[in-house]
Amino acid sequence: MSHKTVRTLGAAVLLVAATALAGCGGAEKSAGGPLSKSTDSTAANHPEWSQYTFTIGDNGGDGSEELAKITGAFDDAPYKVKFARFDYGPPLVQATATGDIDLGYVGTVPPITGAAKQYGFKIVATQHGADPTKAAENIIVPKDSPIQTIADLKGKKIGIPQGSSAHGLALLALKSVGLTPKDVEFVYLSPAAGATAFNTGKVDAWSIWNPPSAIAVGDGARIIAKGIPPIDQVNNYYVATDKSLNDPTRRAALADVLTRVARIFNWAQKNPDQYAKAIATETGISIKDARETVDAYPFKISQVLPEDIKAEQQLSDAFFEAGEITKQVDVATITDNLLPAGFDSSTLS
């Protein structure tokens, strides 16, 4: 992994964007993109929404802010939108619980660890992996490592961002071969610190998502476990604050926000070069690394389905049984679908 990557990943946990997109007043607007004026939820239809500004949590530079500008998806929105960037999922969930952000996407574990400590948020939609053979995250080892299989991790140091989806992948991967966290040494590190530890040999393996995983693999690291079935679910989740969900008018507007986000990413996956450019702009990684990230995890956005809740519950139970959380979480109680039944972002234009 390059030093440039380490510096990029070392950004502050939260960077609030100065630019507000769309809406009324002095909000900055793009010149109009391929998704401009393509919804019926315009200012004329919902003048009451003009009082709102929604903050969207961007998990690690997913390209959403740049894509919003490119596509013009919020150009005709009657509300304002701004973005807040987080290093990884747990602090994003915390900010959602306190109402500092309205909507954001995270991996599989942050909603569970967040609910084990506090409430104030709900899971409102799913990023469904569109290809069960492609993972958003992996467990990787250096190219010259003697570790070949998950079982070989016994007695080894594994770098993980605590409370993240990569934490869940490590737990489930160990469980799949009969190991527990007691059989290894979990080294809890932020993504930036994990990159340094992996690069300098201070950990034997690293459980991490893309782009860091894709970049490391491009530099010669090997994947020994993918975050795919039967080890892990191929999902991410959107969470929203109760402060918006519990207000009927604000909730309706937030559903419009989420629908526009879904359209942004549907367009992005049909235009992978533009998607990669947006990620590269936000993160500072190369276009090549950004394109590998895009290709590694195709997805669509939909309602939270019963099978999603079941998979999350199994993961939550595994965390509790392993002592990684001290309170059992009933996933159904932290789920509140914000999208209509049958919603599928891949059908949006």
From TrEMBL:
<protein>
    <submittedName>
        <fullName>ABC transporter substrate-binding protein</fullName>
    </submittedName>
</protein>
<comment type="similarity">
    <text>Belongs to the bacterial solute-binding protein SsuA/TauA family.</text>
</comment>
<keyword id="KW-0813">Transport</keyword>
<dbReference type="InterPro" id="IPR001638">
    <property type="entry name" value="Solute-binding_3/MltF_N"/>
</dbReference>
<dbReference type="Pfam" id="PF09084">
    <property type="entry name" value="NMT1"/>
</dbReference>
<keyword id="KW-0732">Signal</keyword>
<feature type="domain" description="Solute-binding protein family 3/N-terminal">
    <location>
        <begin position="53"/>
        <end position="268"/>
    </location>
</feature>
<dbReference type="InterPro" id="IPR015168">
    <property type="entry name" value="SsuA/THI5"/>
</dbReference>
<feature type="signal peptide">
    <location>
        <begin position="1"/>
        <end position="22"/>
    </location>
</feature>
<dbReference type="InterPro" id="IPR010067">
    <property type="entry name" value="ABC_SsuA_sub-bd"/>
</dbReference>
